User: Which sequence fits this backbone?
């Protein structure tokens, strides 16, 4: 079964990269009036890197979605194949959570 904590951290990483890309695009728009050969070259490099980053983030997001769907499918199959195990696991988790809440 996939590690859901790891999946959540990957999702957070994808969201963080999207924010960085958006900030970089905003910075490029803000400096659009700047002239000069070095500035123009730097802007072109940054635009190329942003484009590459967008592609990689989209690929990572798609991979994350595929793994999430696979995890959901495996969980669904497990519950359908062994419903009493699923009930027992859910009861055990509920008992542990209840005990932890009761200690407060």
Assistant:
């Amino acid at each position: 079964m996939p590690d859901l904590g790891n999946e959540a951290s990957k999702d957070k990483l994808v969201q963080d990269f999207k924010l960085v890309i958006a900030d970089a695009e905003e910075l490029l728009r803000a400096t659009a009036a700047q002239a000069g050969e070095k500035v123009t070259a730097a802007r072109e490099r940054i635009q190329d890197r942003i484009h590459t980053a967008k592609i990689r983030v989209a690929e990572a997001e798609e991979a994350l979605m595929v793994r999430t769907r696979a995890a959901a499918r495996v969980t669904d199959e497990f519950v359908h194949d062994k419903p009493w195990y699923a009930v027992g696991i859910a009861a055990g988790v509920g008992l542990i959570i209840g005990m932890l809440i009761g200690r407060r």
Observations:
- The chain has a mean pLDDT of 83.
- Residues 37-81 form the longest helix (45 residues).
